[in-house]
Design brief:
The protein has 2 domains: 1-87; 89-285, no CATH class. The two termini are 15 Å apart. With 291 residues, the protein is an all-alpha fold. The radius of gyration is 20 Å and the shape is globular. Helix 1 (7-25) packs antiparallel against helix 2 and helix 1 packs parallel to helix 3 (58-87). Helix content is 73%, strand content 0%.
Length: 291
């Protein structure tokens, strides 16, 4: 079965095993440890099952290649709310705030109030939401265009970027400026028409998680853009403006410190460099499934 596993399959299994080990190590500190062990084990089981049966029909193939990677990311991300503060209770927001102030001589989200407007916030909030469709959309486009090798590498690299960001959340838990320095803001970032509704929906779906550093929105969106420019150039050019607005929105809409965005840029670079090295090594051996 190992020979039939794609790098993305192996990556999800490997990261789920890492989470199982972490949960076992901190079993007494994690309130829902038993549930998490069952959850991560189920991800591994379903992934291995899909590897075995995905060739039977097109539906199972799409489930393995697109649907299950998306579900794995969503499920594991949601589980971070139970893991992060249990294993690392010390938030680093105070450090990120100080770094922002050291670099800029001000609190960026507070300073930006002077050049912000409700209409601009609405535009940026809409751009921020493209994060939830762009990574999937680029993958679907590559699949539809029949660029199978590019698609497999794309899914692997995007999953790697997500999983690296989750490791960052565990190592550097932080809430973000919309919670920690809200008392310094003098103007609400509610926008003109849609921002408040979008913020309420995201808060309801994501909850309060310590997922500020590094900025996954920045890292994953930039990685998606880079790979789109490489494998689907026309679509990549179309995405440049929305992705740039998304990166601006992370700070304007007070989801992230600027240092988080810098961390997201580093996340993107590290993912693409290390991911390429691993992927090419596996391809050179004729098997991209070993980790």
């Amino acid at each position: 079965m190992m020979k039939s596993m794609k790098p993305a399959d192996t990556l999800t299994v490997f990261f789920s095993l890492v989470l199982i080990v972490i949960t076992l190590i901190f079993f007494r500190r994690i309130e829902s440890a038993g549930y998490l062990l069952a959850l991560y084990s189920m991800i591994i089981f379903i992934q291995m099952l899909l590897v075995r049966i995905s060739q039977r029909n097109a539906f199972l193939t799409v489930t393995r290649d697109i649907v299950f990677p998306v579900l794995s990311v969503l499920i594991i991300f949601d589980s971070m709310g139970l893991v992060v503060h249990s294993i690392n209770p010390q938030d680093i927001d105070y450090l990120l705030i100080r770094l922002d102030y050291l670099i800029f001589g001000c609190y960026p989200t507070v300073y930006l109030e002077g050049i912000s407007s409700p209409l601009l916030i609405d535009i940026l909030q809409l751009a921020y939401c493209t994060y939830y469709v762009v990574p999937i959309g680029v993958g679907v486009l590559l699949k539809v265009q029949g660029k199978h090798e590019a698609f497999d590498k794309y899914v692997f690299l995007i999953l790697l970027c997500f999983y690296f960001s989750f490791v960052g959340y565990m190592l550097f838990p932080a809430l973000g400026p919309r919670y920690t320095i809200e008392h310094l803001q003098t103007v609400d970032a509610d926008g003109f028409m849609v921002s408040k509704t979008i913020q309420d929906i995201l808060n309801m779906l994501e909850g309060v998680k310590r997922d500020a550093f590094p900025s996954g929105h920045t890292g994953i969106s930039l990685a998606s853009l880079f790979l789109a420019l490489r494998y689907a150039r026309r679509a990549g050019f179309i995405l440049i403006l929305p992705i740039l607005l998304l990166v601006c929105a992370t700070v304007f809409c007070r989801y992230h410190y600027v240092v988080d965005v810098i961390g997201g840029l580093i996340l993107c670079v590290v993912t693409l460099v290390l991911g390429e090295l691993y992927y090419n090594r596996g391809k050179g051996r004729g098997n991209g499934s070993s980790l």
